[in-house]
Amino acid sequence: MATQRIADILKNGQPDESVTIQGWVRTKRELKNFAFMEVNDGSSMASLQVVLNPQLPNYNDLLKKINTGASVEVTGVLVASQGKGQRIEVQANHLKVYGESDPETYPLQKKRHSFEFLRTIGHLRSRTNTLGAVFRVRNAASNAIHQFFQKKGFLWIHTPLITASDCEGAGELFTVTSLDLKQIPRLDSEEIDFEQDFFGRQAYLTVSGQLEAEVMAMSFKNVYTFGPTFRAENSNTSRHLAEFWMVEPEIAFCDLQGDMDLAEEFLKYIFQYVLENCAEDMEFFNQRIDNTVLATADNIINNDFERITYTEAIALLEKADRKFEFPVEWGADLQSEHERYLAEELFKKPVIVRDYPKGIKAFYMRLNDDDKTVAAMDVLAPKIGEIIGGSQREERLDILEKRIQETEMSPEDLWWYLDLRRYGTVPHAGFGLGFERLVQFMTGMGNIRDVIPFPRTPLSAEF
Ligand code: 4AD
Ligand code: MG
Question: How far does residue 223's CA lie from ligand 1's centre (Å)?
């Protein structure tokens, strides 16, 4: 049977139209001569109000069954609503209850629940207003990302989730194995004999698709990935997940300047798209979660990002009239408190910091002429800190080989990556956007666990 989306009915439905909807009961109100029921199908924040009259067959029996959480199908006629809060409502002619929901045990009640509590019911929390809005924004942002790159002619490529290389060199890898953990084969040296493992070598879940994206950029010029990445980083913070989604464009014949320009244009595009396509949800976040969300979006879209070098950033932090927990020192990585100070307090907008010391960055970043810094850039966002990390890549074979040595990466494992510098090398650059951090930034949601349907964090992999 053809059914309508509630979002479409609320927007375009006219009195006297016949409609059929399917969804889940949010609330029921029984009055003397009739009853109201709010039904939500996830298509919008607002639910559709359904009026139930005693003329409905089995009226009293049905009323007992339509408690919060029950699944229903309603056929009826649209009428202009008398009550305030909605333009239109449905007079039901037919109500079918698919599945009841026991009001004694159903954990979602009409009151506000804490996000901590909702995480314990990850299988039901997407039925709440806030999580519903988050996942619609997540969907719209995903769509915006594809639109942005597809319009520019970037090829969407699929990089492997199982890999043998540690792209970031940070040692935060999950091993993928089919070895019998009760009888792990060992070498004489007591080390694990991964030659007997499934892939004949140690393999991991990828931390980034970048190295493979570079391969593809060397034939298609402009490519992007959008997929899950994994980090066994034991960070229990509101901005770290063990499994998160990353968007990684890789652009051939491009330098750091072009990379920064693309990152800024990209973020502006996504914000604009989400504002246009999720207006009701964004309004909700502004009212209920963080009252700076709309102003921030406006600021992103209409103002240039600040751009400074790492060295300038250190000077600004040294001048700051406040104490940081972590010392500020040229050569040390910026901590999230430093990043937030720059973006949130000092500039009050996104800041792109570039040219970081080579000692704190990955082997593949292009060495600058000063021999001390690399052509790296991070986009720092207010409240979030680093949202994008990128760089121009080292395209010169001899320097790349030296950097691999310095950073103690294995040149044998990277033979194919080095080959790209042997055959038709070009300057190229790219970046990685942490998709959940972006959704946090857009919605004002304080905890990254609440912007992905099923968060994976240390000691937690339920649902
Ligand atoms: O800065 P990162 O480590 O950069 C890379 O992986 C590069 N290979 C990207 C590239 O140039 N193609 O990670 C990129 C972004 C970060 O800026 C951050 O937003 C996000 O990924 N990120 C995380 N998000 C959630 N949980 C984590 N544990 C994250 N680690 C990084
Ligand atoms: Mg980074």
Answer: 18
